[in-house]
Structures are given as C-alpha cells and as structure tokens.
Amino acid sequence: MTSPTAEHARTISLVTGGNRGIGREVCRQLAALGHTVLPTSRSPASAETAAGQLARDGSSVHPLQLDVRDPDSVGAAAREVAKDFGRLDVLVNNAAIMYDTWQRATTADLATVTEAAEANLYGPWRTTQAFLPLLRQSPHARIVNVSSEAASLAGMGGGTPAYTITKAGLNALTLMLAAELRGDRILVNAVCPGWVATDMGGPGGRPVPEGAAGIVWAATLPHDGPTGGFYRDGHPIPW
C-alpha cells in the first residue's frame, strides 16, 4: 500500500471518461509513469471496475464518479479531490458522445446537437472551471482537451455536425483557456488522437495505445512546453 506521503508526492491526474477506450488507456499509461490516476465515469460501478483493471504493479488508482453534464456531479467530484489530495496536476477532458454519422448540417436534429454540446463542450468547460482552484495549487498543471481533426476549420467538410461543431467549440475554448491561464503557468492544449479503434471510432482505426500516447504527451509536457496548440502525435495540426 502506498503511504500518504508518497501518494501526495505523485502527480495527480484526472481523466474524464476514464472507464473505457482511449480514456482508460490514458489512465493506464499515466499510471505506468507513476501518476496517481483518477479514472472517472458517470457510473460509480464502471469507475470501480476500471480502477480494478488499472491497479496493477503498485499503480495508484482512485475511481471517481463524475458526469460532465451534471454540475452537481462535477462539483461533488471536485470537493472529493480537494479533500483527498488538495490539488490536481493534470486534467484530461476526454469524455465525449455523439459521433453522428447519420446527420447532415442542413437537416440536423438540433436537440441532438444540444445533447452533444452538453457533453463535448459544456462538459469540459464546467469541469475545468470546477477543478481550476485545485489546478492552481499545482506547480505544473496541465489541461488536455481531447479533440478531433474533424473539428479543424482548415479541412472541415460536411457530416457529423453535432460531433464536429462541438469539438470545434472545444478547440476555441482551448485557445481561450490557454491565453487566460498563461499567467498561472497552466499549459492548455487540444489533442486529436486520430481514428482509433474504440466503441465510438469503430473497427479499422489505429490501436488504442497509439492514440492515447499523444494525449499522455500533452499531459506530461515540461514546464517550457507549448500551450494553446492543437496536436496529433506531438505534432501541430491546423486549427
């Protein structure tokens, strides 16, 4: 069992949607680097299951219930982290929904777009706001917003409007947060993991560990690392 002193010496990293897919793999890679990892899920049982799968070889993993769409849930999670750890070093805004391949912007159900925005844009926004006091307690805070190249205005076409537009909004939020938090020395970046073979991405994509590696790169940047960027595999991609 890890001692309280050793526990608090570790980097504390929280990953939303950390119970499956890319989120769980990001948790696994961060734990392998020695981080104390907080995998979150809307379901307490799913968070517990993920933590049990991740807690190997002395890894420090603490499950946390958190629904990014629910302000009360987000606030309760922030209070729990404050009580248990007193700070947060890394926030990975990974939770997302609605890869709406069946829709087009010209005929989209705007209720579906609104539902996607609650998770993909407002969710990371409210989560960042709730955890910002704890991130400001860290000497090396990092915020990573998991985005998609589909949200790049430089190459944007039609289709998947709910997912694409809400991820484009997340990119804009990334730029705003990076500018506003530069004085706090909090690095904020967006990362596209690429097309990954997850439940959302479907078969045929790249292996999950490869997609997660770019997110871990952004979560572990050095103090003089970049902020306000959009990356895949550690390389800039167009906004």
Q: How are the secondary structure elements laid out?
A:
Layout (H helix, E strand, L loop, with lengths): L3 H6 L2 E4 L5 H12 L3 E6 L2 H11 L5 E2 L2 E2 L5 H14 L5 E4 L16 H11 L1 H14 L6 E5 L14 H21 L5 E5 L16 H12 L10 E3 L2 E2 L3
Parallel strand pairs: 1-2, 1-5, 2-3, 2-4, 5-6, 6-7, 7-8
Antiparallel strand pairs: 8-9
Helix pairs in contact: 2-8, 4-6, 5-7
Task: Give a brief description.
The chain has 239 residues and is α/β, with parallel strands linked by helices. The protein contains 8 helices and 9 strands. The protein has helices at 4-9, 21-32, 44-54, 71-84, 110-120, 122-135, 161-181, 208-219; strands spanning 12-15, 36-41, 60-61, 64-65, 90-93, 142-146, 187-191, 230-232, 235-236.
Describe this structure in words.
The chain is α/β, with parallel strands linked by helices. It is built from eight helices and nine strands. Strands 1, 2, 3, 4, 5, 6, 7, 8 and 9 form a nine-stranded mixed sheet that branches. It is globular and about 50 Å long. It starts with a helix and ends with a strand.
Straight-line N-to-C gap: 45 Å
Our estimate of the beta-strand percent is 5-15%
Helix content: 40-55%
Shape: globular
Low-pLDDT runs of 5+ residues are 1-5
What structural class results from the helix and strand content?
Answer: alpha/beta
Observed structural traits:
single chain, 239 residues, nine-stranded mixed beta sheet, 8 helices, disordered N terminus
